[in-house]
Amino acid sequence: MKKTRILGALVFGSIGLVGVALSGVGGGPSGPPSPQAGDQHPSALFIEYCAKCHGRDGTGNTPQGKQLMARDFTDTEWQSSKNDEQLIKQVTKGSEDMPPFGKKLTKEQIESLIKSDVRGFIKKK
Ligand code: HEC
After folding, report:
1. Which residues line ligand 1 (CB under 6 A)?
2. pLDDT reported for residue 40
3. What is the DSSP code (8-state) at residue 32?
4. CA of 21: how far to CAs of 24, 111, 120, in Å?
5. This prediction's pTM
6. Cα distance between residue 79 and residue 73, in whole Å
7. Residue 94 CB partners (closer than 8 Å, separation 6+)
8. What's the pLDDT at 75?
9. Which CATH number fits domain 44-121: 1.10.760.10, 3.20.10.10, 2.30.40.10, 3.40.50.2000?
10. Which of 90, 98, 101, 116 to mutate to test the pocket of ligand 1 (most atoms within 8 A of CB)?
């Protein structure tokens, strides 16, 4: 009788430990933010760096976007006229009216911004 109690306590104790270890790995709500495209649309990355001009809905309907005449990402004709490579290059190197992001963001981040965020504005419709 006494033995099983101790065993039970041991098992319970180790489950508790595993739980603590797992939640530590997950980062939890207080962990560092890691913007990842794909988990939401538009991604946190897009909202942070691009929405100011391009808008959360991708239409470019923001004060700054209108002033600079930012591209409307929901325009399907424009979307099909450009391939991913061209858009990735544009975001990396910038253009006359758009700042370059090649130094601020990694290649992977820019790629996912184009493939999930920018392309996502038409897929969603
Ligand atoms: C300061 C405002 C501004 C910000 C911030 C900005 N853009 Fe732009 N973007 C523009 C303007 C203006 C254009 C249209 C003019 C042009 O193509 O040069 C444009 C055009 C584009 C195009 C279309 C290029 C084409 O071939 O027509 C893509 C794709 C794009 N932006 C992606 C992004 C992404 C991704 C981000 C965030 C990392 C971003 N932009 C941030 C202003 C901005």
Report:
1. 49-50, 52-54, 64, 68-71, 82, 87, 90-91, 95-99, 101, 113, 118
2. 83
3. P
4. 5, 33, 36
5. 0.75
6. 7
7. 100, 101, 102
8. 95
9. 1.10.760.10
10. 98
**Could you tell me the pLDDT band of residue 12, with boundaries at 50, 70 and 90?**
low
Q: Region 1-30: what's the mean pLDDT? A: 53
User: In angstroms, rounded to a whole number, what is the distance separating the alpha carbons of residues 58 and 51?
Assistant: 7
Residue spans of the domains in the chain: they are: 44-121
Closest CA to ligand 1's atom 26: 87
What is the number of the ligand 1 atom nearest to the C-alpha of 97? Answer: 12
- Per residue in 39-51, pLDDT tens? 689 999 999 999 9
pLDDT in tens, 68-124: 999 999 999 999 999 999 999 999 999 999 999 999 999 999 999 999 999 999 865
